[in-house]
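User: Here's a chain of 271 residues. Predict its fold as tokens.
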Amino acid sequence: MSQEITPFEQIRRFNPAGNEFWSSRDFAKVLGYADYRNFQSVIESARTACFNSGQRVDDHFVEVTEMVGIGSGAQRPLKTVMMSRYACYLVIQNADPAKEIVAQGQTYFAIQTRRQELSDEEVEEQRRLAIRGELRQHNSQLADAAKDAGVIESRDYAIFQNHGYMGLYGGLGAQEIHRRKGLKKSEQILDHMGSTELAANLFRATQAEDKLRREKITGKHKANRAHHEVGAKVRQTIKELGGTMPEELPTAESIKKLEFKAQKALKKPKP
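Assistant: Prediction complete.
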């Protein structure tokens, strides 16, 4: 189905920020719903599917009031839902399958959504690689700051790190996080974090190092407490922003696979 001629692309709109969306009323007309009230039940089913998939419903279904002309220059307000491409995909899956246009739409949005997923996966891979690299560097700097504070022995440093994790993960230490992620004994926690979780840990590491140096903290017990405080503060910030707690984020595939793929791509001869 050509992108230039599909009716779904013809009714696509863009907001001032350049983001695409579809009006539920335009969508209902294209799908042949003469009575918009019948289409509203389809939207509700799609909302439920969106919630069950772990997505934020408000990111994909936004209710607005549009002024619509009714003749003689008069207008009246109508409730409309502005839908993302993913929302359209869910709507089309819940629409009347007896309609031929619905079958066409299911094929179209399945293909387009998969293309978007592939693009998003590539972006996520690059983010993970970049943040993981930064985290390696800052963990080294944090270790130096902890050493200056009196955390000398490797066992003491493991305890120090655990305090940071416990603050950020609501009381869960490294072993509990490891088990929660379902990792093997040889696998590292940081290697199986998505970009969001890595970013939270990067913030924890940079702020913990800064606090140790800025406040000239000495003594391993004070250093442990400081690291826990920083982790807890990062967790509180995530909560205030309405984000997902780090222990609830999904386990990602080993970043070592991504690093191997990136190295292989660099060695590949250019055409």
